[in-house]
Specification:
Blueprint (H helix, E strand, L loop, with lengths): L1 E2 L2 H11 L11 E3 L6 E7 L4 H19 L4 E7 L4 H12 L3 H13 L1 H4 L5 H13 L5 H9 L1 H18 L3 E2 L1 E4 L2 E2 L6 H10 L2
Parallel strand pairs: 3-4
Antiparallel strand pairs: 1-5, 2-4, 3-6, 6-7
Length: 197
């Protein structure tokens, strides 16, 4: 698990403490809204443990639970750095919810190629290359990255998550508002879900 960067949090907290945005309405989710189980995953797109959760748990979860209407899955942004923030903005730049989740998967899959180095321009260009694979136009992605509201929306969600859930590391997972503390392997995760059905 990756520890949050306190300095980064303090900066965004000071910049956006005055925003009163409705963060809940901007959550990326899939599955039936009235599913018996809601899984909330607070993650940073540059976090290797988050990518690992996505590859080891999410795909099986989608097949066994989400697609069957048993689970509502929510991706909550908790960017730990500027690269993760910008990747999150590109993710939300896509208008189609289904494609957003496919794009999320590809961002995690290619994390080792785009989330490297400290040159944010190169990082942004690498993220946009991934976006192009999902019919996002370069001009649209540039506009999303330049739009203060896009940034504010993501950071408002991060601040709200910190306030409400006291997130200390990523990924942090909640199953029906109860923090999941088990191992990140599908067998154990599945058992935990089955107890809630």
């Amino acid at each position: 698990m990756r520890k949050t960067n306190k300095k980064f949090y303090n900066i965004i907290f000071l910049l956006f403490i005055t925003f009163s945005l409705n963060a809940e309405s901007k959550i990326l989710s899939e599955g039936k809204s009235d599913a018996k189980i809601t899984i909330k995953v607070f993650s940073s797109l540059t976090c290797p443990a988050c990518a690992n959760f996505h590859s080891k748990i999410y795909y099986k979860l989608k097949k066994d639970f989400i697609d069957k209407g048993l689970v509502k899955f929510e991706h909550h942004p908790f960017p730990l750095d500027l690269a993760a923030l910008n990747a999150e903005i590109i993710l939300r730049c896509h208008g189609d919810n289904s494609e957003r989740f496919q794009l999320l998967s590809k961002i995690y899959e290619k994390q080792g190629t785009w989330a490297v180095g400290s040159d944010i321009k190169k990082i942004n260009d690498s993220i946009k290359e991934i976006g192009l694979e999902f019919n996002l136009k370069k001009e649209k992605m540039d506009n999303c990255l330049a739009d203060d509201k896009s940034q504010d929306d993501v950071l408002a969600q991060r601040i709200e998550a910190q306030r409400k859930y006291k997130i200390e590391s990523t990924p942090t997972i909640f199953i029906n508002e109860k923090k999941y503390r088990g191992k990140i392997n599908y067998k154990q995760f599945k058992k935990n879900l089955e107890k809630n059905l």
